[in-house]
Specification:
With 488 residues, this protein is of the alpha/beta class. It has a seven-stranded mixed beta sheet, with helices on both faces. Strands 9-8-7-10-11 form a five-stranded parallel beta sheet, with helices on both faces. The chain has a three-stranded mixed beta sheet with strand order 1-5-4. The chain folds into two domains: 278 residues, Aldehyde Dehydrogenase, Chain A, domain 1, CATH 3.40.605.10; 193 residues, Aldehyde Dehydrogenase, Chain A, domain 2. The protein is built from 15 helices and 21 strands. Helix 4 runs parallel beside helix 5. It is globular and about 70 Å long. Bound molecules: NADPH dihydro-nicotinamide-adenine-dinucleotide phosphate and 2-oxoglutaric acid (AKG). NADPH dihydro-nicotinamide-adenine-dinucleotide phosphate binds next to helix 7, helix 8 and helix 11. It comes from Polycladomyces abyssicola.
Length: 488
């Protein structure tokens, strides 16, 4: 039997029903490690399908917002339990669909479950403050109300955690959802939504429509009945979404790219800094917005750091992400492979020195996937393309600096400001870094990636719309404040 005959078709989820797109068209979602393997077929929906989903969400919002916060939280606990029962299946689907290794995919799914439980608890916490009124007989307080229908547009690199860290707070604060996952990882998304269905979420509270970004994503941006849009993805699309939302007065929240620096000072624990640079830069094949991309190393320890780093990078085993021996899987798609290879070519053309890697891997089975070597450059000058643009692949640029001041100036000399790390034992250097680095996530003696669900997450400069997601910060986007004055 061929692989294809066993492949399942995944449907849209609208008003509590699994339904085909009105186009009757589906698209294959393929395994980036074995491009002949189809993980599932997903719907290629039209604006008509989106309209139905929005109408269902609009209808459901009246009842959903009337439930108490704790009652909405109970649904999130049930979704978490359903996901926990299916954790291995969801993680394996993620690995097969976008290529991160199985332990990473399982860790991400576990994180999704923990996010659901965290926001389930948020349903019991306070939503306002009492503020003294100038009228001694009046009572003044704030409360919060949901936005209404929220459009959730997500990328393929965290196909479980990102949708959940947007949908869980949306739901617990009383919104209903129209979810458009990246088409690249729509099978994994469908499995998350299946857990919502299994948990008995009322019809219309969450709706999923798969299809292209230019049709369904743009349709969400333009839809007059969608009150808020939350997005993670590229800067180009994010800016378009922000402009579209602003034009029609919808609330929006954007999380976009990064060009994250690590600074290694001469007093650093070099083994720790090397391991963190490799983990932060190359885990998930470098496809994290928080991935380490530029490594500023003080000249006195530069050669030692480089030698230790290269020795470890050379040991990285690249291969099929379901193989327990594999440390680094493929890039998520052919498009991503071509983008990363073109950045590597640009680095060479612009005069950087390629120290290691740089090639597509095509030996034996690898030729059927989108594999690239872990890649390290040096002699990277600050204005080179690979020092400025987000690569979103396993590519590190080493840059020699003489002082912390020089490192800070260069680290800040990019359009992005998402995350940043420093390795040092000196408290003064730590404090200078905390004060002066332009990043929303600042990490000391720890890798640049590593977001904790209970803390605010978001970037400065072009990395975000200056809002924050996750933790208690989520309430700011998913609700509106009402200031109430009462006098008997
Ligand atoms: N910050 C981050 O975490 C991420 C950053 N990126 C960066 O973006 C680059 C390109 O990745 P890519 O997947 O193309 O990212 P996109 O920004 O194109 O995709 C993110 C999401 O937006 C959707 N989308 C695409 N076009 C529109 C539109 N016009 N209106 C509304 N929604 C739209 C996509 O749909 P669909 O995919 O179905 O077309 C997807 O669901 C990467 O190389 C990386 O640099 C990418 C992903 C995540
Ligand atoms: O580093 C993380 O865990 C989150 C990264 C992220 O949000 C992203 O890549 O989009």
């Amino acid at each position: 039997m061929s692989v294809e005959t066993m492949v399942k078709t995944y449907l849209n989820y609208i008003d509590g029903e699994w339904v085909s797109a009105s186009t009757n068209e589906v698209e294959p979602s393929i395994n980036p490690a074995k491009k002949y393997e189809i993980v599932g077929y997903v719907q290629k929906s039209s604006k008509k399908d989106l309209d139905k989903a929005v109408a269902a969400a609009k209808k459901a919002k009246q009842q959903w917002r009337k439930l108490s916060g704790p009652a909405r939280g109970e649904y999130l606990f049930k979704i978490a339990n359903a996901m926990e029962r299916r954790i291995d299946e969801i993680a394996e689907t993620m690995t097969r669909e976008m290529g991160k290794t199985f332990p990473e995919a399982k860790g991400e799914t576990a994180r999704g479950i923990a996010i659901l439980r965290y926001y389930a608890g948020e349903g019991m916490r306070k939503v306002g403050d009492v503020i003294p009124s100038t009228d001694s007989e009046g009572l003044m307080f704030t409360t919060r109300v949901p936005l209404g229908v929220v459009g959730v547009i997500t990328p393929w690199n965290f196909p479980v955690a990102i949708p959940i860290w947007k949908m869980a707070p949306a739901l617990v604060f009383g919104n209903t959802v129209v979810f458009k996952p990246a088409q690249e990882t729509a099978v994994t998304a469908a499995k998350v939504v299946e857990c919502m269905d299994e948990a008995g979420l009322p019809s219309g509270v969450v709706n999923m429509v798969t299809g292209s970004g230019s049709v369904i994503g743009q349709g969400i941006v333009d839809h007059p009945d969608i009150n808020g849009i939350t997005f993670t993805g590229s800067n180009q699309v994010g800016k378009q979404i922000g402009q579209g939302a602003l034009a029609r007065g919808a609330k929006y929240q954007l999380e976009m790219g990064g060009k994250n620096p690590v600074i290694v000072l001469e007093d650093a624990d070099l083994d720790l800094a090397v391991d963190a640079t490799i983990s932060g830069g190359l885990r998930s094949t470098g496809q994290k917005c928080t991935a380490t991309s530029r490594v500023f190393v003080q000249s006195t320890v530069y050669d030692q750091f480089k030698e230790n780093l290269l020795a470890k990078v050379k040991q990285i085993k690249v291969g099929d992400s379901m193989d327990p021996e594999t440390w680094m899987g493929p890039l998520a798609s052919e498009k991503q492979l071509q983008t990363v290879l073109s950045y590597i070519r640009k680095g060479i053309e612009e005069g950087a020195t390629l120290l290691y890697g740089g090639r597509r891997l095509e030996e034996r089975e690898l030729k059927n996937g989108f594999f690239v070597e872990p890649t390290v450059f040096e002699n990277v000058s600050p204005k080179m393309t690979i020092a400025q643009e987000e690569i979103f692949g396993p590519v590190l640029a080493l840059i020699k600096v003489d002082t912390l001041e020089e490192a800070l100036i260069l680290a800040n000399d990019v359009q992005y400001g998402l995350s940043a790390s420093i390795f040092t034992k000196d408290i003064g250097s730590m404090l200078s870094f905390i004060n002066e680095i332009e990043a929303g996530l600042v990490r000391i003696n720890a890798e640049s990636a590593g977001v904790e669900l209970q803390a605010p997450f978001g970037g400065m400069k072009q990395s975000s719309s200056h809002s924050r997601e996750q933790g208690q910060a989520a309430i700011e986007f998913f609700t509106a404040i009402k200031t109430v004055f009462v006098k008997a």
